[in-house]
C-alpha cells in the first residue's frame, strides 16, 4: 500500500505584490491647459505644444501608431536595441538606475532592463500620468527585484530627479534612456538645452542612450506621418477634442484636417491642423478667428544624420561612444558619454 505522509503545513505569507512607488509630481504635472491653448492660438502663426497630444486617448492613439505598417521607427528601434542589448549592458555596468524620458508604455524599456546586470531602479518620466502608471504597474510586476519610481511631469522643465532617497545599494550609474526619437520633437536648440539638463540629472558619470530617426526619402516620411488607416490624423485631431473638454473650446472636428509636410530646409516633418473654412472658435471665453486654409502647427519631428546628431550631442555636453543603425539606415541609437 502506498503511504502518504502529510508534511506539517507552514503558512508563509505570499510575497508582497511588486508595485511601483506612488508617482512624484514634478513641474508641468498640473499644466493650465486653457492658458497654454490661448497662448498658442493667439500667436502668429498659430501653434500648440506637442506634449498636449498625450491625454489618455492621445497616449492610446500613439500606441496604435507604433504598430502601423507605415510607422517604421518603433519596430526598427526595437530591432536595434535587441541586437545591441549586450553592448549596452557592458557599457552601463552593474546596478544601474535607468531613467527614461517620455516613457509612454515602457515597451522598449523591457529590452534594456532584461539586458542590464542587476538594474536597481527604474525612473519613468512622463506627462501622461495614468498611462505611465499602468505601464509602471505591469513592469514592476514583471521585475520583482526592481524599484520603480515614476515621475509625473514635463521633462523640459526638470533640473533634478527625486532620487535623493535612493534605496541602499544603488551604487551603479544613472543611465538615461530617451527612445522613440522624441528628441526630434524638440527644436535643435531645445534639444541642446535638454541634453545639458540631462547631464545634470544623470550625474557626473551618467550615460545616455538616445533613439534618433534618420533623414530618408520624403515619401517614406510622409507615409509614416499620414498613414492610410488615419490613425495619425486621429492622433492630431484628438488635440481639438482635448481642448473642447479641458479648455472650454468648441472646435468642430469636421472643420479641420490633418496635414503632414516635409520641410527640407529644416530637416523635419511638420504636423498641422488645417482649417477647412473661415470660422470663429471659442476657447476659454475668447473667440479665435481662423481663415480657410490657415493651420495650427502641432508638431515638429526632426530627422538627423548620425554625424549631425553627434554634433548636436557635443553642443549638449556629450560625445558619441557608439552609434548603431539598422541595415536600411532608417533609425539610429546613440550611446552618449559625458564630455568632461
Ligand atoms: N518612449 C515611448 C513613447 C514615445 S511617445 C516610445 O519610444 O515609444 C512620447 C512620450 O513622451 C509620450 O508618452 C508622452 O506622453 C511623453 N512626453 C511628450 N512630451 C513630454 C514632456 N514634455 N514631458 C514629459 N513627457 C512627455
Ligand atoms: C513621439 N514622437 C517621436 C513621435 C514622432 O514620430 O515624432 C510622435 C508622432 N507624431 C506622429 N506620429 C508619431
UniProtKB/TrEMBL annotation:
Q: Where is this region: Disordered?
A: 1-26
Question: Domain of life here?
Answer: Bacteria
Gene3D superfamilies in the record: Vaccinia Virus protein VP39
Q: Which SUPFAM superfamilies match?
A: S-adenosyl-L-methionine-dependent methyltransferases (SSF53335)
Q: Does the keyword Signal apply?
A: no
What Pfam families does the database record attribute to this sequence? Methyltransf_33 (PF10017)
Q: Where is the composition biased (Low complexity)?
A: 1-10
Enzyme Commission designation: 2.1.1.44
Keywords carried by this UniProt record: Methyltransferase, Transferase
UniProt xrefs under InterPro entries? EgtD (IPR035094), EgtD_Methyltrsf_superfamily (IPR051128), MeTrfase_dom (IPR019257), MeTrfase_EgtD-like (IPR017804), SAM-dependent_MTases_sf (IPR029063)
Q: Which segments constitute the Histidine-specific methyltransferase SAM-dependent domain?
A: 37-336
What Gene Ontology molecular function terms does this protein carry? L-histidine N(alpha)-methyltransferase activity
Tell me a GO biological process for this protein: methylation
Membrane spanning segments where?
A: none
PANTHER family named among the record's database cross-references: ERGOTHIONEINE BIOSYNTHESIS PROTEIN 1
Q: What is this protein called?
A: L-histidine N(Alpha)-methyltransferase
State the organism named in the record: Tistrella arctica
Amino acid at each position: 500500500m502506498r503511504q502518504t505522509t502529510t508534511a506539517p503545513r507552514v503558512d508563509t505569507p505570499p510575497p508582497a505584490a511588486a508595485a511601483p512607488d506612488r508617482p512624484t509630481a514634478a513641474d508641468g504635472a498640473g499644466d493650465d491647459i486653457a492658458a497654454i491653448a490661448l497662448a498658442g492660438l493667439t500667436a502668429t502663426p498659430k501653434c500648440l505644444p506637442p506634449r498636449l497630444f498625450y491625454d489618455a486617448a492621445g497616449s492610446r492613439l500613439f500606441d496604435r501608431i507604433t504598430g502601423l505598417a507605415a510607422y517604421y521607427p518603433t519596430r526598427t528601434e526595437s530591432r536595434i536595441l535587441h541586437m545591441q542589448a549586450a553592448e549596452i549592458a557592458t557599457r552601463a555596468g552593474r546596478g544601474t538606475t535607468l531613467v527614461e524620458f517620455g516613457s509612454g508604455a515602457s515597451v522598449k524599456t523591457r529590452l534594456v532592463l532584461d539586458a542590464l546586470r542587476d538594474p536597481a531602479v527604474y525612473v519613468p518620466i512622463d506627462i501622461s500620468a495614468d498611462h505611465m502608471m499602468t505601464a509602471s504597474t505591469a513592469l514592476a510586476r514583471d521585475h520583482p527585484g526592481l524599484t520603480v519610481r515614476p515621475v509625473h511631469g514635463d521633462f523640459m522643465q526638470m533640473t533634478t530627479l527625486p532620487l535623493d532617497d535612493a534605496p541602499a545599494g544603488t551604487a551603479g550609474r544613472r543611465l538615461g534612456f530617451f527612445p522613440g526619437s522624441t528628441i526630434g520633437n524638440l527644436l535643435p536648440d531645445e534639444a541642446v538645452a535638454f541634453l545639458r539638463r540631462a547631464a545634470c540629472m544623470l550625474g557626473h558619470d551618467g550615460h545616455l542612450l538616445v533613439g534618433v530617426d534618420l533623414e530618408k526619402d520624403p515619401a517614406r516620411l510622409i507615409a509614416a506621418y499620414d498613414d492610410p488607416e488615419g490613425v495619425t490624423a486621429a492622433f492630431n485631431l484628438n488635440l481639438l477634442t482635448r481642448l473642447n473638454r479641458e479648455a472650454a473650446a468648441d472646435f468642430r472636428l469636421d472643420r479641420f484636417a490633418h496635414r503632414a509636410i516635409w520641410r527640407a530646409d529644416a530637416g523635419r516633418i511638420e504636423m498641422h491642423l488645417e482649417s477647412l473654412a473661415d470660422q470663429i472658435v471659442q476657447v476659454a471665453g475668447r473667440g479665435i478667428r481662423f481663415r480657410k486654409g490657415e493651420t495650427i502647427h502641432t508638431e515638429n519631428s526632426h530627422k538627423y544624420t548620425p554625424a549631425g546628431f553627434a554634433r548636436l550631442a557635443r553642443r549638449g555636453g556629450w560625445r558619441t561612444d557608439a552609434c548603431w543603425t539598422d541595415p536600411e539606415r532608417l533609425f539610429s541609437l546613440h550611446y552618449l558619454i559625458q564630455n568632461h
